[in-house]
Specification:
The chain is an alpha+beta fold and 478 residues long. The protein has 3 domains: 258 residues, BirA Bifunctional Protein, domain 2; 96 residues, Rossmann fold, CATH 3.40.50; 71 residues, 2-Layer Sandwich (Translation Initiation Factor IF3). The chain has 14 helices and 23 strands. Strand 18 and strand 19 form a beta hairpin. Helix 2 crosses helix 6. The longest helix is centred in the last third of the chain and has 26 residues. The protein is globular and about 85 Å long. The protein starts with 17 loop residues before the first helix and ends with a strand.
């Protein structure tokens, strides 16, 4: 007896209620769910498979650049935060503390690992021969500041990678800070099919304790910017605070330069928002652990024949981790809806009429395009179709980004364009107080980045009308 088919699909449209639409896509596509612990999430196997794919891709890249993985303690002594004042002040509101009853010592659950790692670096770095030191760790982070949970985007605990490197010179330090930022750009665009803008953060928005913060920013379909990854030139402040010194080739003692860089499971949220639709999740093929689902269409009298041919096709496409949905308890139409909801990039349909014509039907998840393909041509056609889906998703997102970047003529124009959910270019004086006023008057717009390439002539600040220092992108953000 067939099971009663439960209702599938997203109950709200992306354009009508973006926030609720996003929440439904994440939950119904089985990427994640809310935990019983307020502010936390459970990452389900489908969601974690995306994270594993990101890890596999990036881990190979950084190892080729000489970075080694390590792991450091979850707890950070309170005294460590006090060693770098700006860093301590920046993270104080987000810290969750654990008290050691016997010793009367407080430990923070790591909000980031600079301090606990650099205590070890002070022991490891002795000579110029120890440099450059390039270490990365994959771990979880806790920041106790989330008022409203948004899966993958705003949770108290999240997963990330954080790289921490030590160099002899600032030139090498800054060069590699930009190198890792560029690797993030490749990951975002080549793997996730999300176009990004690269630049530098303003003084107000830079990482607590850094000399310079570089950032990648993407624009989500609701007009909000999303920070996709950051890379920081930390200068020498942390090295001084944690007594990291080295003997140079001239036998003199020097203070090294440091950088740090990271991205998090927030990338999965960006992936969902950028590509998905009213049917559910859309995964770019390069990030999908399963790229193909095969759905056989049959009646009882021809079931064995169809299933046999479907299995042959599955084996033919094993490099794509193809799955065969041969469940008897659901109709083909219900299966189509389920796999569209879960974002499988390519569906292959096959029934008795297709077998008679030695063909299958290919259906692309991104645009629902259907093609009848001879089985003999399937290998090449599948490869080409998946590449086209990847490229089409990126081009669609790039077109959206480009069409929503605009330049403000004056303050009134700036306010109007922020209200219209645009990424607004404007000249800015760089003053922290002025930036605070911009945020207040626009109900939340912040500087997203200072483009690395600046125009030769800089005009007056869009807000205070003092002489501007640089061109800046502004937007409301997650």
């Amino acid at each position: 007896m067939p099971k009663k088919e439960e209702k599938l699909g997203i109950s709200v449209k992306k354009e009508d209620d973006f926030s609720e639409w996003y929440n439904e896509v994440v939950i119904k596509s089985e990427l994640a769910e809310h935990s019983v612990i307020k502010g936390f999430m459970v990452i389900r196997p489908r969601g974690y498979a995306i994270w594993e794919c990101i890890q596999d891709y990036f881990d190979e890249k950084i190892k080729n650049l000489g970075v080694k993985n390590a792991y450091f303690p979850l707890l950070v002594p309170e005294a460590f935060f006090k060693k770098e004042a700006e860093h301590a002040q920046g993270f104080e509101p987000e810290l969750a503390w654990i008290s050691e009853k016997e010793e009367g010592v407080r430990y923070a659950i790591r909000p980031t690992s600079e301090t606990i790692m650099y205590d070890s670096y002070g022991k490891w770095v002795r000579s110029w021969r120890d440099l450059p030191l390039r270490i990365n760790q994959w771990c979880n982070i806790l920041r106790w500041e989330v008022k409203q949970t948004k899966l993958f985007l705003r949770t108290r605990e999240f997963l990330w990678q954080e790289g921490h490197c030590v160099y002899e010179t600032e030139e090498e330090c800054n060069k590699e800070a930009l190198l890792y930022l560029n690797e993030y750009k490749k990951l975002s665009e080549d793997l996730l099919a999300i176009p990004v803008l690269a630049g530098k953060k303003t003084e107000k928005e830079k990482f607590a304790g850094a000399k310079t913060t570089y950032s990648l920013e993407a624009l989500m379909p609701d007009g909000k910017a999303l920070q996709m990854g950051t890379s920081h030139n930390l200068g020498q402040n942390f090295a001084k605070a944690f007594n990291i010194r080295y003997l140079g080739k001239d036998e003199k003692e020097y203070v090294p330069w440091q950088n740090s860089w990271g991205f998090s499971t927030r990338l999965i949220g960006a992936l969902v928002m950028t590509h998905s639709d009213d049917k559910g999740l859309i995964l770019p093929p390069n990030i999908a652990s399963t790229q193909i689902v095969i759905v056989p269409i049959y009646k009882s009298e021809n079931k064995d024949k169809v299933i046999k041919k479907a299995n042959e096709i599955k084996n033919k496409l094993k490099n794509y981790d193809a799955i065969l949905d041969d469940r008897d308890s659901y109709t083909p139409g219900w299966k189509f809806n389920e796999w569209e909801l879960k974002g499988i990039p390519l569906r292959i349909e096959i029934g008795p009429k297709d077998i008679a014509k030695n063909q299958v039907v290919l259906v692309s998840r991104d645009n629902n395009n259907k093609e009848f393909i001879k089985i003999a041509q399937l290998d090449k056609k599948v490869k080409d179709t998946l590449e086209n889906i990847q490229a089409n998703l990126f081009q669609k997102a790039k077109k959206f980004l480009d069409s929503n970047i605009t330049e403000a003529k004056d303050w009134n124009d700036f306010i109007k364009k922020i209200k219209n959910r645009k990424l607004v270019k404007a000249f800015f004086c760089g003053d922290v107080g002025c930036e605070d006023l911009i945020k207040d008057k626009t109900q939340g717009a912040t500087s997203r980045l200072i483009p690395l390439e600046q125009p030769k002539k800089i005009g007056k600040c869009v807000h205070c009308r003092k002489q501007g220092k640089f061109l800046v992108y502004f937007a409301k953000a997650y």
